[in-house]
Amino acid sequence: MDIEANDAAPRFMAFDTDGAPAHERFEQWRSLFPQVVDISPVERSRPYRANAIVYLAEDGTGMARIRTAPTLTHFAEGSSDHFMLGLIADGHSQVRQGRGGEETADAATGFNLMDCSRQMRTLSRSGQDSVHLFLPRARVMQLLGPDPTGARGALRHLPDTPMGQILKANLSALTRYGTALDARASAQAMEATITLALAYLAQFGAAEETPDLDALLFDAACRYIEAQLDDPRLTAESVARALRCSRTRLYRVFAERDLSVAGYARDLRLARSRTLLLDARWSIGEIALHCGYGDLPAFSKAFKRRFGMAPGEWRQLHGATTR
Question: What start-end ranges are recorded for coiled-coil regions in this protein (predicted)?
């Protein structure tokens, strides 16, 4: 199965070597990445086992969730023009960069940024469960400078941040639901994920005030607010703290779009509340809590101010059903 040879519109695809004859498994697995790396199994006496969920766009950006048996992987000099942002969930890899020393990447090291254009070898002796994003070189260099991995190396460990936690949750959701998406939804989900990954990387760059980074900050702030809508403690200050920016800058990037942080959160909460009011299984009190209101009176007041009637009246008018 050669994903790069697929003429259909890109979408998330699942692959499992267990569906192939034992003697063909590894070759089929290697065909997933024909122009990126050279791969070889560590235990040649056993049938190779691996599975993946892969999305690869025409420009080479994309994502791969990979579970493999022990594997040796070689990145040749200039083999790819992308950076790979990786996260290991289980297992570990020994990484040798060019003729330099060796270091370990595992779950404890968090996100790792790899320059796939540089010579590198990774060895997983016990198998590995990992997820990787393939990011455009120009955008990564715009955020992190001309040498994103530092000192002409191929690998850079990145610290964990609240933004990193949001990115992890996003990647987890993609691996669970990606194959259920059609081509259009797959492209939209992948674009949003890459934007979120770039926002995570932007935290470690020097040119903080460029317009492109403002756009990344706005997008990341919106996604953080959406993820935290049920938290009544959500404020502009908590958003700024999670994204590691000043409140002043956060206010500015929203104001430039004729929005406010509080207004954006309020609009999302009230939109969610109307959706839930159509489901009779939710009590109005439960809806208030799920939409981030600490008590029912506060929710009723905000709802009536926006829609001109109490939540119960709106539900009765629009006819809630048990779905």
Answer: none
